[in-house]
Amino acid sequence: MSRPALVWFREDFRIGDNPALTAAIESGRSVFCVYVHDALSPEIRAPGGASRWWLHGSLDALRASLRAIGGDLLLFRGRSRDVIPRIVEAAGCAAVFWNRRYGPERAIDVDVKAGLKRSGVSASSFSSRLVVEPGDVRTQAGGSFKVFTPFHKASLTRDPPPPPLPAPDSIVAATIPAELAARTVALEDLDLEPRRPDWAGGLRESWERGETGARKRLSSFLENGFAGYAGDRNRPDLDMTSRLSPHLRFGELSARSVVHAARFALEASGGSIAREDYDVFRAEIGWRDFSYLLLFENDNLASGNLQKNFDAFPWREDEAAVDAWRKGRTGYPIVDAGMRQLWRTGFMHNRVRMIVASFLIKHLLIDWRVGEEWFWDTLVDADAANNPASWQWVAGSGADAAPYYRIFNPVTQGERFDPNGDYVRAWVPELAGMPSRMIHRPWEAAPSVLHSARVQLGESYPKPIVVHEVARKRALSAFESIRSRRS
Asked: pLDDT tens-digit profile of 329-386?
């Protein structure tokens, strides 16, 4: 037992309910923990700007947590296939522990595990990221689910998941050989946070990265937003969503710990939290698991249509329209509010995500991959499974996709889910003076109303870049052209 154990952190930046860390400590060996920043392996999708910012804070917080219990986090840079075996050899490790990944990068894990075993080093991987892993539930015919509802129904037969593991109290830290320590890099040297210019001010104001911040956010949601969640989660003007997605994306919380906390809150609420609140929230966790199933079975989820008939879709190229969409200058207030919230905070309410995605794809006929790439770069919760799966769902090109004829009207969506215009006023301040009845359709307001609100259409706020009725007909015609090819 004199040879140490290695814990390889990837997207599981926490010490609580971390099976790989717990198993390494329970092995009785001394332990050292590493993170390899791999920007070279083709299987790993390079994180966008907002994700890089979050990663910096998440690594910093994890290192502090490990140091508090006697450990540390060593940072390396390079191809994981090369770096991990070199660390193992230099430190004389007897065992390596990690938590599983489900995208194309799992090919790296397979290669590393095979190489370690050939060298006589034990390699163990664990379920940590999901409540239901790919393959955990099957159709009656033994196949994989292609539609969410039956997948989720089958998943609930496994509810509740195993209880989360407690955070360890201490680690027996391994002695790091000098030659290995010399190969480490400082967190700042990974160049994850923006410097010139530093555009992350709004992100810092909006988020607390790390496991502690994640637990604070979970507690706040369960105490203040869970009751009424089923009815109000679609209201961007209310604080009724969990905002846990970036914490889950970086593994600062495990999904099963969230499920257990929600169940406990439901049972302890004395009826103030309805069963429907729990069921709807649990389904959101289920969508995350389903998206990872799609990624597991489709490595090109972010680049290829799952419905192959969409390969023939007549997408348009219109850089001016895409630029207006990105900047929140489309002339449709609910769309513009969402895009500005995204740019400022790295986040967008889920209902608004569907609205802005539908607008780009169906009003502008822009390829869904253009929107997916923008979200990948600007969302702090940009997730390799959820992001492309959701864009394909809106486009109609994915599994269990929305019907092609579902084209959100951004005006009626705004009036339904932001009835007083408070969300729009928060993110489109030039419309703050508009009366609620007209704030989602300012181009229909009388000149006196616009004058009173100090709105000059086409100057202080843009006119709509497309007319909804015209865009809808154009979209339906385009979708009709590929219906006969649906796979």
From this structure: 999 999 999 999 999 999 999 999 999 999 999 999 999 999 999 999 999 999 999 9
Residues 266 and 363 in one domain: no
Residue 376: active-site member: no
- Whether 287 sits among the annotated catalytic residues: the reply is yes
Cα distance from N-terminal residue to C-terminal residue, the chain: 56
Among residues 297, 326, 343, the one where a domain terminates is 297
**Catalytic residue check, 368:** yes
Q: What is the pLDDT of residues 428-456, one digit of tens each?
A: 999 999 999 999 999 999 999 999 999 99
Check which CATH number belongs to the domain holding 64 and give it: 3.40.50.620
**Residue 8 catalytic?**
no
Active site residue 443: no
Q: How far apart are CA 431 and CA 325, in angstroms?
A: 17
What distance lies between CA 39 and its chain's CA centroid? 19
Looking at the structure, tell me whether residues 147 and 267 fall in a common domain: yes
Instruction: Please check whether residue 345 is in contact with residue 203, taking contact to mean a CB–CB distance below 8 angstroms.
Output: yes
Q: DSSP state, 461?
A: B
pTM over 0.85: yes
Q: Which residues contact 350 (CB under 8 A, 6 or more apart)?
A: 233, 234, 241
Domain end position, chosen among 105, 127, 149: 127
Beta-bridged to residue 74, according to DSSP, are 34
Q: Which of 8, 325, 368, 376 is catalytic?
A: 368
C-alpha–C-alpha distance, residues 292 and 274, integer Å: 28
Q: Which of 43, 199, 315, 443 is catalytic?
A: 315
Catalytic hit among 284, 309, 343, 443? 284
Instruction: Express each pLDDT in 417-429 by its tens digit.
Output: 999 999 999 999 9
Q: How far out from the chain centre does Cα 278 lie?
A: 21
